[in-house]
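Cross-check.
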Amino acid sequence: MNAKPKRRTVTENGDTGEDLVLATLIGNGEDLGPIVRHAFEMGRPEPLLLQLKNVVKKKEVEIEDLCRVHYEEFILAVDELRGVLVDAEELKSELSSDNFKLQEVGSALLLKLEELLESYSIKKNVTEAIKMSKICVQVLDLCVKCNNHISEGQFYPALKTVDLIEKNFLQNVPLKALRVMIEKRIPVIKSHIEKKVCSQFNEWLVQVRSSAKDIGQTAIARAVSTRQRDEDMLARQREAEDQSHSGLEDFAYTLDVEEIDEDSILKFDLTPLYRAYHIHTCLGIQEQFREYYYKNRLLQLNSDLQISSTLPFLESHQTFLAQIAGYFIVEDRVLRTAGGLLLPNQVEIMWETAVSKMTAMLGEQFSHMDSATNLLMIKDYVTLVWATLRHYGYEVSPLLEALDNGWERFHGLLLDECRQQIVDVLANDTYEQMVLKKESDYTMNVLSFHLQTSDIMPAFPYFAPFSSMVPDVCRMIRSFIKDSVSYLSYGGHMNFYDIVKKYLDKLLIDVFNEAILKTINSGTTGVSQAMQIAANIAVLEKACDFFLRHAAQQCGIPSRSVERPQASLMAKVVLKTSRDAAYLALLTLVDSKLDEIMKLTENINWTTEDVSENGNEYMNEVIIYLDTIMSTAQQILPLDALYKVGNGALEHISSSIVAAFLNDSVKRFNANAVMKINYDLKRLESFADEKYHTTGLSEIHKEGSFRGCLIEARQLINLLVSSQPENFMNPVIRERNYNTLDYKKVASICEKFKDSPDGIFGSLSSRNTKQSARKKSMDVLKRRLKDFN
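Predicted model, tokenized:
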């Protein structure tokens, strides 16, 4: 055993350094690949191989040494192993016995286990079946619930139920037959719901169209009340401004603001529409429903825009326009509340369609209208519809343009109607002073038109200076102004006062003035009627200022702006001219009547021997007639007109007296006849002076008198009774005393003058000497006049 260690020592002593390195690497378990690769790359694998063999030998020596050291322990281990094998055999025998016993016991348990497993399997299957049954029951319950909703018309819950089945249950239904059946029924149910909802929506379309008229009328009634409230407030404001301008009183203004929910006033049910749109949205076909709604409503609009062929437009226009207004009120509500069902551009298209057809239709209907009243009625209702729809945001300017285009035609028709009314008023007037028996009559016929001559209330009965024609015409003109303003109001004209004034002038000039001139020139009026016409024109001329102020007030123009002289009506000047024409017609009639009376001068005895101071009978008739004329004129005519009437009548009488001397039927006359006419003339002069003072003309015309109107007759009589008539040829005396006498007339009259009365004893008269001197002077005058002519 000792020899082996020695050999190991020798071997160890013979190892080189490289062998030790290699042995260390192998002992450490490191990779020899790089060393092997390097040896081959260097082309010297043999040293490496030798070294490896040395390492192997070294390891074999180590193994042999290790086995020698542990030999005894190995023998002991083998012995122990043999004992273990004996024990293993005994254990195996015991294990076989125990296994047999276990097999005997386990067979029974195995049968029980198989039964248990089978029970577990059955339980699992039953559980699965119960779970599947529950799913089927839930699905069937939802199907029943869906059917109930559909039968009750609750389509939205039915769709939600179908959606629940489809999303949460359908894929989990274990029964294929049930799943397939449900899959087939879902589209059918959705289609059924769609049809039902469409049917309800179609019923709503019919219902909302039938109620559109009531909706429109309700909204228009609201516009009427709003307009009335605004007009009342404006009237109060104008009254306050006028009174404030007059300095009468201070006023406090209050602003009443009334907020009213239009939707609460206009009650109409859009629930079927909301429901239909919502259900179509749930079905995913909302675009289809939008198109369906728009198409059907557009068809309804086109149908509503067809006017009735059985009724006149005057009778059907309110229904027609209310239907259109109601239609667009509904569309406005749908646009605002239906959540995108209707688009703004669609509403604009519908509105433009309606406006285009309505403007064309209104233009055509207006062109066929022959009554201003009817035209105004339709226009007024159109403006109410305009105000109503403008409140809902619709652009109504084209409608206003259609109305504004007809204002000239309207005023033409209105003038024609007023022309007929004035003709009727003039024809029915008695041209007698209007008798007002009570204060209400005075207020209605005088104060309401500012026709009063005094601010003091007169005693009743009151005899107005005008006939019934004046208040009738004033009422007609006031109505004309109202109708004109009503047509031009609420339109495109911001300041329409000039238009109203223009047609007011036309009414007074082209209509009333022409009618009154026809009446004046008709030749059928008497003196009293002509006088009353002249008085009426004077009153209406004064009333022009009232008409202008009333027109300004109705147009919202301050009264002070029309009080300037340059702002007055042209008709005032024209009426003044017509008034002068009426005075001329009156004077013509008076002169005609005076001519009839003066024809009585043919009964005068121009060669009378009666030297009494009693006048001729015709003068009594003249004075009575003049007194009647002047008294009547004093009651109804202005003082300047009274002055004209008096002047004209007396001048005509003066000319008639001169003409009586020139009459061919008067071949000669004597001094007695001249003295009687002188007495007649004095009576007439006294009457003229009395009337001039009692009528108040002396206070206005202080330097004049009615006596001056008789100057021609007076100068002629003075010449005939003059003791020296030849002085007529003296220019100074003639200019001072006879300036109104014409040479030829004087010559003709003097030729007829015979200074001695007819009679057998004329030459024996006590006045013979005086008459002889006068006769000589008259003869001289006659000769000189002949020479002059």
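The chain has 28 helices and two strands. Confidence is low (pLDDT under 50) at residues 1-14, 245-260, 757-766. Passed to J.P. for a second look.
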